TrEMBL record:
Transmembrane segments: none annotated. Pfam families: AMMECR1. InterPro entries: AMMECR1 (IPR023473), AMMECR1_dom_sf (IPR036071), AMMECR1_domain (IPR002733), AMMECR1_N (IPR027485). Gene3D superfamilies: Hypothetical protein ph0010, domain 1. NCBIfam families: TIGR00296 family protein. It comes from the Eukaryota. Residues 1-192 form the AMMECR1 domain. This is AMMECR1 domain-containing protein. It comes from Spizellomyces punctatus (strain DAOM BR117).
Length: 209
């Protein structure tokens, strides 16, 4: 596994430090470069998760600065949601996805549910070029078929007209895989309590859910 819980703890600490007006702790992982996404979920009373923010970048970024940036971007500047408030922290979980194994798909169905994330590029009826992505877990979590996932992505990317087979066949699809893990706020608090206080010395965005 490429990703570790340390990546998630760091993202939590970046957000908590933002609210507390301090610098986050130093990262406890190497500063390798990966395309990455940071996902925040609200944990409901029944234990289910509701998306609270998810933004990342398909460019390979240094993990120290990339996770620091997108921990805040995904929690505070996802246009689909209001910014996360400090009072929400106890009910949040944070997931980090590091993307790998990018491949060009032969067509819009050349990918496997539960294995691949998909990034599509297409043109709308007006001729503008659009793109949209879902991380590998999304289609499986939603119970979608491949066709349903593709059509949902077309809508997400801004296509408002009729979805035809001709439009689907015009899609340029890139499939990829990810290494992902997540922690809850209580996990973060336990981790934080076991560490001495350490201070940090120290793009085209995509929405993935």
């Amino acid at each position: 596994m490429v990703v570790t819980k340390a990546h998630c703890y760091y993202c939590f600490d970046v957000l908590v430090a933002h609210f507390e007006g301090r610098r986050p702790c130093e990262p406890e992982f190497q500063n390798e470069q990966y395309p990455l996404f940071v996902t925040w979920n609200t944990i409901q009373e029944d234990g289910s998760h509701r998306l609270r923010g998810c933004i990342g970048n398909f460019d390979a970024l240094p993990l120290h600065s990339g996770l620091k940036e997108y921990a805040l971007t995904s929690s505070l500047r996802d246009r689909r949601f209001s910014p996360v408030k400090e009072r929400e922290l106890p009910n949040l979980s944070c997931g980090v996805s590091l993307l790998t194994e990018f491949e060009d798909g032969k067509d819009y169905l050349d990918w496997e549910i539960g294995t691949h994330g998909i990034w599509i590029e297409f043109r709308t009826d007006s001729g503008s070029r659009r793109s949209a992505t879902y991380l590998p877990e999304v289609a499986a979590e939603q119970g979608w078929t491949k066709l349903e996932a593709i059509d949902s992505l077309l809508r997400k990317g801004g296509h408002t007209g009729k979805i035809t087979d001709k439009l689907r066949k015009s899609i340029q699809l890139t499939r990829y895989q990810s290494s992902k893990t997540a922690v809850t706020y209580s996990d973060y608090v336990q981790w934080k309590g076991s560490k001495p206080h350490r201070v940090d010395t120290g793009y085209s965005e995509q929405y993935a859910n």
